[in-house]
Amino acid sequence: MIRPDQWHPVDGLVLEPNAMSAVTTSDRNVVVAAGPGAGKTELLAQRADFLLRTGQCPYPRRILAVSFKVDAARNLRERVRRRSGSRLAARFDSFTFHAFAKRVIDNFRPALTGNNSLNPDYRIDQDTRVAGEQITFADLVPLALEIVEANAYARGGIRQTYSHVFLDEFQDCTRQQYQLIKAAFGHTTAVLTAVGDTKQRIMAWAGALDGVLQTFASDFSAQPLPLYQNFRSAPRLRRMQNRMIARMDPAAVSPDEELAGAGGVIEVLDFDTEHDEARAVAGLIDGWFGEGTAPSEIAVLVRQQPHLVAAALGRELAARSIPFRNEQESQDLTAEPVAALVFNFIRVIADDRQPDAYTELMRIANRPSAPESQASRFGGQLQRMVGQPRATVRDHTFRTGEPAAWRTLVHEFLELVSQPALVALSTGYQQGTRLNDLIEQALDAFDRELAVDGDAVQALRRLSEVDAIRFLTIHKCKGMEFEKVVVLGVEEQLFWGTPTAAMSEFFVAVSRSKQHLVLTHAKHRDRPVGATNRWDERRTPHQQFLNFAREA
Length: 552
Prior knowledge:
The chain is of the alpha/beta class. It has helices spanning 17-24, 40-53, 70-84, 86-89, 97-108, 137-150, 152-161, 175-185, 212-219, 235-248, 274-290, 306-309, 311-319, 327-334, 337-350, 355-365, 372-394, 403-417, 419-423, 434-453, 456-463, 474-477, 499-510, 543-550; strands at residues 30-33, 62-67, 92-96, 123-125, 134-136, 162-167, 191-196, 223-224, 265-273, 298-302, 324-326, 469-473, 482-487, 513-524. The strands form 3 sheets. The protein has a 6-stranded parallel β-sheet with strand order 3-2-6-7-1-8, with helices on both faces. Strands 9-14-13-10-12-11 form a 6-stranded parallel β-sheet, with helices on both faces. Helix 15 (337-350) crosses helix 16 (355-365), helix 15 (337-350) runs parallel beside helix 20 and helix 15 (337-350) packs antiparallel against helix 21 (456-463). The radius of gyration is 24 Å and the shape is globular.
């Protein structure tokens, strides 16, 4: 432990003054308004390191971080582990709102009474609620709020656990989510840090609370600390973003002298049909691969329905053997620790060139909470367990194209890892059937990809965050960044709705790019198989949005 005045940003990072103030404040709540590329995740990771390393968060108390997406919560958790090490990071809990609410319910479930009472082995379903036995994801936050508001024991337990709270992407917080935070930590000694950007408020359709950053500042007497620098995008891309900011939030406009420079590429591509678009974009991606760009640094963004809008591009990429994945279907799954464990195990036994996957398996073997003798023993078992199935897979009798053969090896491996170790991967696995459900979902996803060509390595590439380019909705891409970004279909038929919401979504999309931004539109898009709602085949370019690019 060191004194606060001895602490410096980890890894030699240099923080702008307001960021440094937000990181090192000890006794007051702050609200950080930060645009894209300002380093919000890094700010929170550095603050966690400061609090843990200086004892401002004293043992055994913990830090709670609440995000909106599974992958955002995971990324923050991993960033803290890299900055602070596994021992200190073990006291850092990074959840989504739903996961935090579920933990409250699991810990204090007997406090629910009447129609909301739940059995110990209740399940969570996407749509259907069964009294006492099953709830939906939409029920999690209201039930947790009921517990916290009605039960002093639950409130006391939460407040004794967490001395500090981080709230990420807080501009998208709903009324009930805000009420949960306020009920749990309002008028307490907990120190809260909220970060967000009103220009990226794109969840109004889901009930995001208007003006929540200002409401938080008032309710929690939080000091506003705006961040101004953009560390992500090249100058030309920042100039485009700045033109949009002038329309959305004039007070946040950057001076022209801060945006000087020729770096960055913006392309606006006009096509007659989605087939022309697909061939051209696939050719671009192929060229980027040839230049050495990693697949994980390329993203294709679509406002909605990527499985329909990007279907032609998907077929063209498949014809060129370029792995891609639709993250509308797989993003949340691959962010789950147990799914990552399953995929990494298959990688290690199917391919000799997977050192990173093997390292992740060994990290689980050497988990810091386990006694040294137990970790060492398990590490030896893991080496043997990996060696035996690798030999099995390479035997000419192994049926590489049959899912059942792989499932047998996976289940044997998970049995070795043991149920307690699997449950320890995430607090969400401690109750009900979620752990087993996720294992089955991971195996089902692998089965689907294996059925494409019978090649396990290629199947995993298509599921990978590293080896495949990603098709993302704009809502899914928040908090991410890529070297190359293609925004597919900048058309009035896709960017419809209220002008403010459409502008915010387009701003989120273009601000994901660090170096190269491509905007496309087509005059005609055939109605794809599977389209059930309105689909206009004749398309109109969204000139207002495209002009921001042309003028940059």
